[in-house]
## 1
Amino acid sequence: MGRHPAAFASSGRRLLLVRVAWIVIVVLALGLFAVSITALYAQRSAPPEPLRAGLVQLGLPIGLYAAYWSAVMVVFAVACIAVAAVIAWRKPDDGMALLVSLFLVLLGVANAPNMQALMEVYPALGFPAQCLLFLTYACLLLFLCLFPNGLFVPRWTRPFALVWLVSIPVTLLLTGDSLGDPGGVWLALIILGGLPIGAVAQIYRYARVSDPLQRQQTKWVVFGISVAIVGQVVFPLLVDFFPSLTRPGSTALLYDLADFTGITLCYLFIPLTIGIAVLRYRLWDIDVLINRALVYGALTASVVGLYVLLVGGLGALLQARGNLPISLVATGLVAVLFAPMRDRLQRGVNRLMYGERDDPYGVLSRLGERLEATLEPESVLPAVAETVAQALKLPYAAITLKEDGEGREGFVVAAAYGSPVSAPIRLPLVYQHETVGQLVLAPRVGEESFSATDRRLLDDLARQAGIAAHAVLLTADLQRARERLVTAREEERRRLRRDLHDGLGPQLSSQALTIDAIRALMRRDPGSAESLLLDMKQQARDAVADIRRLVYALRPPALDDLGLVGALRETAAQYGQNGIDVSVDRRSCRPCRPRWRLPLTASPRRR
């Protein structure tokens, strides 16, 4: 149980009062229990006539029968008290733990056989017995409303619990019924009406509020209570299917002892599972117990039902009842069908709890179908994550892809399914001995890791996911290459436009102006005209050089003549032999153009 600032916990003087009240109630309950055991022995010393006949038939003394009943109740009470003592000792400052321990003590000492015998043999102790039963029901309801963290969840359960607790004593005063009397209709309706509300509160808490650890605690408690309910229902129903069990004599006696012992053992699961849940010891084992309980519980019910149907059907068909051959035939058919039924039930329960881990071929086939149906690359990895999570019933599954950046290397989430968890398990996705990503998985609620069966299926799925992740990475690289190609093409177009507009265009425009100036100076100043003609000649050479440079920049001829490697070698040789001329033109006082330029280098502008 987790502690909470607003939880059912106390401190200081209030905690001291709670402890004192707890001790007083426990002491009084133990005192009444001691008296109730003597009353139970006295009551069972006068068994009904069918049971007495059975004792005589088997040669057993009546005192042994009464002692057996008393011993079983003492053992049950000692087990409940022992678990309650451990909880109170381990968590003495937790108010919820004190409530749970008090409930277990009352469950052990204030059970129906004891209290009924106490009120029957000692009528003067009827009122204390009524109070003890009322406290037991009150603790049960509070336990259902508050477990495991001591909060009323949802909030409307608080006023409901108050009304329910007040309605029981009011009903007792108005009707005069007794809590130990099963014939009180109104009282039974009130009590039975409160238990479903507590169950609804636990379901709501499990689905909306509880964390994984609290859900495992709830599973343990629900498992114990379910076993008790099944025992309480199944053993009395045996009489309906096998009326001969109540036949006076040894049969009725043995059924009475088996019914009493079986129900008590089933109720013993309640303190044991509550103790495990509160003390949080090996909470993950509950799934195995639930699995086996579901399988063999369903198998038992199926076998009994099949046997009854076969016996009844064959008896009606052959118009015979109680015929030994019919029973033998029914037993043989049940024996033949037992193993196939168990295997089928085991597969069904495993599929319910663990998904499709026992059918790896089916999972891989379904994953292949999903990948074949998925046409868009961005939908491939989400389909893989969803298939893995649904196949194994995992709360979270994700796929991360390897990302190499400038000075950093890591994994980014590419697809996810479910709600993220704090500490997931990561499995590498490998393609041709290279890690391309990770399969990030959260174990089922209450499990710390995956079983060997889960691992085998996950290894197969990881190989398929690795291929899919590699394909997605290749698609992403191809998309980025296309984008870079388009970007480079656009940049090259802009560069050509810029060189033509800002370089070659002004040169040609200046030549037209120079020609006009030469025409004006030819008659007046032939020397100046000649000098302008020489400048225009140089400008024409520069324009031709720029045109050649632009053409060379589009695709160097060396690539066609020598190939890429040869073109690179020739360029390196030019660097080593010629270098770049950075001499200064004294007339213009600026660096001359280099004799050799890189293909993508723009020529300087002329003034």
Note: The longest strand covers residues 408-418.
## 2
Amino acid sequence: MKNFKCGVEIHQRLDSHKLYCNCYSNPSSAGGSAHGALFKRGLRAVAGELGGVDRAARFQAGLGKTHEYFAPYGECCLVECDDEPPREMNREALAQALRVAKSLEMECVDEVRVMRKTVVDGSAVSGFQRTALIALTGTLETSRGPVGVDSLCLEEESAAITPEGYRLDRLGIPLIEIATAPDIKDGVHCREVCEKIGLLLRSVARVQRGIGSIRQDVNVSIEGGARVEIKGVQDLKALPELVDNEVKRQEALIALKGKRVNASPVEDWSAEFASSPCRILAGKKVYGFQADCPGLLKTPVHEGKTLGNELAGYARASGARGVIHSDEDLTKYCLEDFPRKGLWIVCSDNKAALEAVRTRLLALGEGVPEETRRADGSRSEYMRPLAGGARMYPETDLSPVRVTRELFEGAGTGKGYEERVAEYIALGVGRALAEKAARSEKRELFESLAKEWDAKLVAGVLLEKLVELKRGGATVVGEEGLRGLFALHAQGLLTRAGLEEALSRLAKAKTKEFKPAIEKEGLRRLSPSEVERLAREFKGGFAAFMAAHRLNADPSDARKAFENG
């Protein structure tokens, strides 16, 4: 792999109210309002700060789409609908961003200036995303040497796409974007870098958890290729293969460099499919063209993907469901007797999509184009041309924010992942549980409970037993109930096993009712004298006794009773 370059951009949602209004939303949590307002918008590309129109924005605007938006009541307001100017920047989110920047030893800016980044794919009602540079030039230590951190920005999360359109509850949530230098060595190293930054963010900042709350964009290029951005990587396990596949894809396209292809214009072929046995195309408006390169679309791009699959992605990016071509198995479409010879490609109801495929086919000889692609497991698919600097221009509705000494120092530094793990181990928690606690979304609750009660017990109950019960579908006590049960255990009224049993049995009881409830449920811890009496009367050994009385007999009391008996 010559001149391999790879860097990542990591986007993490913060757990705070939105960046430019006071609305709060966590789309990754259960629920969400089903009531709200519906409206539509058409978006157009505008010139950037230097007067040029970005190629990605021009491509998206050229699709001519009208976007539908749903604004849930209580989770967004007129700011997200672009019907009210933004309010001042969320200072809590800014402090969180500064804290992360300091943890990466970055150089923070003296003044935060907000820019608009043209985005006309529908994910921002206004047609732009607000983004602000917070810090530059940091370093992340990894097992394969330091990786530079080029920038840290604070920006707005995009709207969530649904089958019906876009939901605005997600739009405007503060998002930290961390961009690394192209220092990543390969796909395995890429995964390590993403994991380390993810752990740092979760350790240092207050972040949202759940699917979609953190996303990775991966930039890859090789010698003779071009920079390609793969957006929306969710599964870190797929990263090594995703990067490897992108390298193979670029190598396959480099091998076609200089290839000359001739193709006929895209024409209306509907008449040829009027009575076709192909149900996908019969009776529809069908467009097609021919080219002088039969067999070319069978060329492997990487395992499980051919050049034909690659070109179909360009059709889908233009709104089509895909294409059918003569280099694939035509029996599955009942087109094995189609009379045209050589390579032909058809698409239904979307001439522009087939034009995009033809344009890309004719450009194969130019090598690897710069583009933005969508992650799909360990594969990727074309989305749009790669965006550039022409999409940026100053935000005129917001004043700059001075990073005063008070603001900078008040942001604090936060504890790193390894520091937290070491702290938990010092409290008596084993390494495996300590690492689980440091990664967990219940970390703050664990730290709070561990200040009052045995940390090892708290970790086991909170991070293992509760998870086990929930996976089994059980209803369990909340935070207040947990505190009540740990207090009863500390008072000697519950054994460890009794406490764990009470997690689900007392889920519907009020905390003040716990004492009579554990008596009623037979969970009250037996006194040493009660255990001794029962042990004398018991016919069997220690193990059998504990099996019979595991919920309310403490093992240490039972062992003493049997040793003395």
Note: The longest strand covers residues 128-140.
## 3
Amino acid sequence: MSFSENLKYRAEKLRAEIERCAKLYYVYDSPEISDFQYDELIRELQKIEAEHPELVVPDSPTHRIGGAPREGFTKVQHKVPMMSLDNALNKEELAAFYEKLCRLLEGGSAQVVCEPKIDGLAVSLIYENGLFVSGSTRGDGYTGEDVTANLRTIKSMPLRLAQEVSGRLEVRGEVCMEKKSFAALNEAREESGEPIFANPRNAAAGSLRQLDPRVTAARNLSIYLYQVMEPERHGIESQHSMLDRLRDLGLPVQGAERVCRSLADIISYLDMWMEKRFTHAIDTDGVVVKLDELTLREKLGATAKAPRWAIAFKFPPEEKLTVIKDIEVTVGRTGTLTPTAVLEPVRLSGTLVQRASLHNQDEIDRKDVRIGDAVWVRKAGEIIPEIVRVDTDKRVSDSTPYVIPDKCPVCGSRAVRLHGESAVKCVNKSCPAQVKEGIEHFASRAAMDIRGLGGKIVSQLVESGMVKNVADLYSLNVFQLASLERMGEKSAGNIAASIEKSKERPLGALINALGIRNVGERTAHDLADRFRSLDSLATAAVEKNFELEAMDGIGPVIAESITAFFSEPHNVEMIRRLKESGVKFEIEQGQENINDLKLKGLTFVLTGELASMTRNEASEQITAHGGQTSESVSKKTSFVVVGENPGSKYNKAMTMGIPVLNEEEFINKLREAQ
């Protein structure tokens, strides 16, 4: 391949990667790389196109203002495009911008206004005669999304201006989430088993773009304004007077701006905010520098992408060198062994960092992280500590690669890594680290359906020592249950009756209740239908019977999970006790099986948030009626169920022509299957 062909190929690869990352960032609010890395990709492509104009294509991302508007919202055409800003990645580039500004203005210096750059979602607000009437996101710069109802939920945004303004007023700014609100939101999501947001910007964007304003209202968003459109109509002549005018109108302004009259003043402001950003209430990833006088802005104009009179200086990620003192392994609720690096304390983003998650063995191997290594550490999104890379030049000669142990550090049982998975898991379902979640799953409706046995009661039972594994549930009596905090005799009697009734649950529900890794409800019912008893299934698993792997939907991964479960002595003992307690282990002659269920043969993919149930509950409903769920959309998908804030699965379904169900249609289909 010639040099020119290599360059053309590199440009095409860059465009494809930039478009992919931009879509993840702007459309789905789930970026895979940092802003700094994204800017570097843009910069490399810009350089290639500048040096080789023949390689420029009309749809290059270097000509794009932003991301495409998201499906599911009414589109709004911006009267004046919402343009993005060019970036300066270091002080030299900032100095070059300022010197060019001075030359274009043909003066010795240029007066600018500097403000911390808010890392949020750009929005436009419309007020009519002082009343808020509509608001939209930036979208692709020309067409945004109508998020009026969601914006109304932001407490800091006035619905009526503090002063009378006749006619139409458009103001622009950023919706964001303060750091303390972000931390509280992630803590709540982690407790409820939901995925956490990577950074405050993603949390704010995902919250504002909810189809249900009630979800947005619960997210505690903030908004800061910085621009008045058509400023001449309102007697505004400069950026600093524009911010004053916004304050007078009662609109929230960040309030950290400074008028700078020289490059030295700008650099001084940057240096101050390089440190001050860590204690700032909101996440800031840089400083915006804008020419102050508005008439001069008109003189300079704009390129197709950005104004010539402003630039965004992006802070480089703060990275510091420290040492890994040890690697500790904790056991999560699902039995996953998670390695965490114990660090020599280092101050990052204004806080002392002493630990950083290493996630899994693949991540450890990829970065080649070892105990005693000198490592560069940073905070992802200025929040979550992470190890960036190892300084191998400082590695001691006798260091050895780190391997997650094959014994559970809590209970001592085997810890295994199943084929095709990144996680190492403890296979002992009686492990104290897993037992609470295991009991909650065992008692769930799609499993043994023990009504009243919620998370708080399960915690009390485990912490009191009454229940060490699910078999202990069948030894409980009313008096023991009534001794729990805030538990009356009637409630205790109801739970005891529900435990007794659960002994008659069908075999498929029992197999599902055991919580075997990779065995969901549908697979559990298939196994019950095929083997007809738990004893037969256990025998086939331990003997690695070919019948198990030969079943439809049971490949090597699931077969390995089943074998691991039934080979663990703790699990064998638990199953023996369940049988002795009278739990039904067999399908009786003529009993209903999976083939009688109405969703048999249908595959559902769930995307977005459902209002009436969690996605886990929806999945349980599907499999309880004979259907199955999948994590990916393919030709085998029967329906895609779309909730609020759907992801790429919705777009793929539309592209492939796969039927899409909204929540109401999905619920109706479940009712029909009953």
Note: Residues 591-595 have pLDDT under 50 and may be disordered.
